[in-house]
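Before the break, one more example. Copy the sequence into your notebook; we will annotate it together after we see the structure.
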Amino acid sequence: MTVLSIPSPSSGVWHLGPLPVRGYALAIILGIIASIWIGERRWAARGGRPGEVQDLAVWAVPFGLVGGRLYHVATDHDRYFGAGGSAWKILYVWEGGLGVWGSIFLGAVGAMIAAKRRGMRIAPMVDALAPGLLVAQAIGRWGNWFNQELFGKPTDLPWALEIDAEHRPAGYEDQATFHPTFLYEFGWNLLVFGVLIALDRRFRFGHGRMLALYVMGYTLGRGWIEMLRIDDVELSDVHGLRFNVWTSIVLFVVAAVYFVVSQRRHPGQEASPYVDGHVEGREPALTPAGDGSAAGTEPEGDAETGRGDRDAHDPGTGSGPGTPA
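Here is what the structure looks like once it is written out:
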């Protein structure tokens, strides 16, 4: 064991009387709360109504949990349906096992259903929420630390992670310290979050491009971090690479292509985050009297970029009050 190393918790469960409190669940819950708070601020800065992101979360969170579990089970089904497995353990989410891509996909489906019901445009909605997902994923990774799971290859670096003998995979019983991949992803996700917020303040991305940047940023880090992991899962070697590495490569390319095409076809931001053209806190502009048209619904400013009187609030970012830090 190295002189300097990161200890793992002796237990990931505490009890308040008969009630178990699990570190994994706490990490997931705190991550969700953080992403909702960030999303609320970003949605309000785009001209959305306060509280609507919380309404979306009522749909997105349960959809995301189900999607994450289904992805995990699909890519590691022998653990539940193979020899010695138990299908009932599919319900034991507190033991870990939430696939990020499944959570994002079905969570997005839930959010889109809620957004459609409220007359919200999908592109501004996902652009507002995307950076907060990085913070949610960063905090959620600490659940792996509590469960002593999904760590990397053995190492004697000063920041190596101590893993108890009962949690070491076959073939690594004599190794005591491993790469803390949970910590790498925690740091990477926060770094990408900061970069995306800075870029958005400068360029004010719209039409789903912030979501594309989120996918590119996350997959860029997930790819190299995944290469360090040694957890034994099915589809762990597809043409020499782990399945999640291939997933990251494909999604990075798709997101990059979308970003370029979207930038060319729809530069700037949407004028309104709502289908009806409403912008919270701003009355729609009226057309001049006598021109034969009814009162307009287009907000002031450029219809393509959404700029105009919103820039007066914050010349540096053009985001208005409530821009997330």
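Residues 52-75 form the longest helix (24 residues). The chain has one domain: 20-265. Try to locate both features in your own notes.
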